[in-house]
Amino acid sequence: MTNNTARVFGLDLMRAMAICMVLCSHILWIYNPEDGIIRQLFALFGFLGVEFFFVLSGFLIGRILYGIYIKDDYTIKSALYFLKRRWFRTLPNYFLILIINIIITTSLGYSMPELGLYFIFLQNGFSKMSTFFPESWSLSVEEWAYVVLPISLLAFSFLFKPKNKNRFFLVIVLSLITLFIGFKIAYHINTKTTTLDEWNVSLKSVMIYRLDAIFMGVLSSWISINYEKNWSKFKFSLAFIGVLIMIFMYFGMGFLRILPATYPFVWNVVYLPLASLSIAFFVPLFSQMETSILILKRPIVFISKISYSIYLLHYSVIMQLLMLFVDREKTALFQLHLITVVYLTTTIVLSYLFYRFYEKPMMNLRDKN
Question: Which whole-number Å values give the CA distances from 36 to 32, 106, 316, 328, in the listed order?
Answer without folding.
Answer: 11, 35, 25, 18
